[in-house]
Design goal:
heterodimer, A: mainly alpha, globular, B: mainly alpha, rod-shaped
């Protein structure tokens, strides 16, 4: 198995941290409203894991696709997207059936929220990464 | 009554299938993005890190559209039939 690219690992960690923060916030909201139960917790846990895994698998696919020809890369991404969608369907379906529907569905959108916050938080990280890349290319 | 329940179940399944048509778009979009990124990295190999980061974020955004469709499909398959049948049964009981 190919080694995980540094960029992919860094972005996955960024998304994971945001998913955890937003999950805690969602649990707090459920608690405050008075709808919290163990089903909410497990639904959130299942869906958050699926969302992070989905992003990681997307990153690995992108990493592998970049080494291929254009046509192959396109097909690889399409196939990967279909498979990841099936995985999310299974995870969210199980969450909706056996746990709380809202808690199982909402965390799927947390990576999108994390990407939305990226311009405000990721500026420093991006400039640091660019500087590191520049140094590496000089060497 | 059974016919009405059958129609409700059929319409829910049909709606879920139609909602998943939106899942085709992100796959095509991501494929095009990665193909263009391959081309860009081929031209400027030193920009691989920046291109990968931007593309990952772009792919995550593109995939959200598919996720909306997925959520609608899940709700239509697993939750909606039960609710609609309950509403139908309650309405029929009230009419009696």
């Amino acid at each position: 198995m190919a080694k995980l690219d540094k960029t992919v690992a860094r972005e996955t960690v960024y998304i994971s941290v945001w998913v955890i923060i937003l999950s805690v916030f969602m649990q707090a909201v459920f608690l405050a409203v008075g709808f919290w139960s163990i089903k909410v917790f497990f639904g959130n846990l299942l869906s958050a894991c699926a969302a992070i895994l989905n992003f990681l698998l997307m990153g690995i696919t992108v990493q592998n696709a970049l080494k291929k020809e254009e046509k192959d890369a396109r097909q690889t991404m399409r196939f990967s997207q279909s498979m990841r969608m099936l995985m999310l369907f299974a995870a969210a379906g199980a969450g909706v059936l056996f746990f709380d529907p809202i808690a199982a569905v909402v965390p799927l959108f947390f990576p999108r929220v994390a990407v939305g916050f990226r311009p405000f938080i990721g500026k420093k990280t991006d400039s640091e990464a660019a500087a590191t890349e520049k140094e590496q290319s000089k060497e | 009554m059974e016919l009405a329940i059958g129609i409700i179940l059929g319409c829910c399944a049909l709606g879920a299938g139609m909602a998943m048509i939106a899942g085709i778009g992100p796959g095509i979009g991501e494929g095009n993005a990665v193909a263009s990124a391959c081309e860009a990295i081929g031209r400027q190999p030193e920009s691989q890190g920046n291109v990968t980061t931007t593309m990952l974020m772009g792919c995550a955004i593109a995939e959200t559209t598919g996720l909306y469709a997925l959520v609608i499909a899940i709700l239509l398959i697993f939750l909606a039939p039960g609710r609609f049948v309950n509403i139908l049964v309650e309405t029929m009981n009230n009419l009696k």
